[in-house]
Write a structure and sequence with these properties.
The chain is an alpha+beta fold. It is built from 11 helices and 15 strands. The chain has 2 domains: about 1-170, no CATH class; about 240-335, no CATH class.
Length: about 325
Amino acid sequence: MDVTAADVLAHRAAVQGLHDGDLGVLALGVVDSPPNTGAAAIAVRRLGYDEPLVRVLSLRGAPHLHRPSDVPGLRRVLRPRTPRQLQAWCGGMPAPELSDVDLVVELMRREFPGETATKGELSAAISPLLPKRATPYCPSCKTEHVIEGLFRLGTLLAGIELEPRGAKLVFRAPGPNDEGDSTLVSDYAHYVGPFAKADVEKWLGAGPQDTWPELRPVTVEGRKLLLGGDLVEGDELPAGLLLFPRDPYLLGPRWLVAEPDVAKRVWRPVGSPGALVTHGRVTGAWRYAFSGRTMIFRVEGWSRVEGAARKAIKDQADVLAGVWGADVLEATVVEW
């Protein structure tokens, strides 16, 4: 089966609510780092979702917004069951024993200090009670503490949520921590479209996966990928979007959405700007700043954006200003 990149991106736009405000894409969760980027991902889709979402450290240990009903299944998918999967959470540190994951979870629930706790407070409460293999010396902190990735994973598995807002991680006392069935990988296949298995594993940040949904090969622009289900025929590509680099629309093979020179400017190791999307593809970068009551969007090549794309970007800027300013701010778009 051969399809074009435009077919894939039209599918994404259709199933991810970029035309009709469908809520299904929330099954993937949305990144909320820096704070408010999760709300931005929801707002640009005009989802109007007013049910409570929970903020937790989930995929790759990063803050995400999820529907409460999806979190038990998320725990099941992300819980490491092999040494290789645990190593993925520990980064450059030697992975401890798999049994140490359960110990971290038990201690977090038992030793949680108060109604809320900072990352440092919670780490200090459990680190002295863990074996040395789980608390190596940290040169930057100049002390021994629980491995960073293991700590982040432990909060999810222990049923610990984050306060809804704020750049500083502040945790709430543990709630339920049951595991449940999950369709997360199948949902990824549906909402992203054709992908390589490495794309999913990088997105999960949880090491090699043991099971996969039913997949079939597909060729996109001469490259072999995998597809679960059928592509939805989208009516059109999004005229203009202001997205953050880990928005669900931008998941999957990066070459599908951006030329290599553009990708280098948008996806950086640290401090990535936003992704300017015109007619379905990433064509540049953008950043924002505040000046009094005005939210200023500096957009690459803004003078060359015309027609429907220009109008759509202005509309997106107004929506995002509403996310940050709750109708207090106004938006202006200028050349970067």
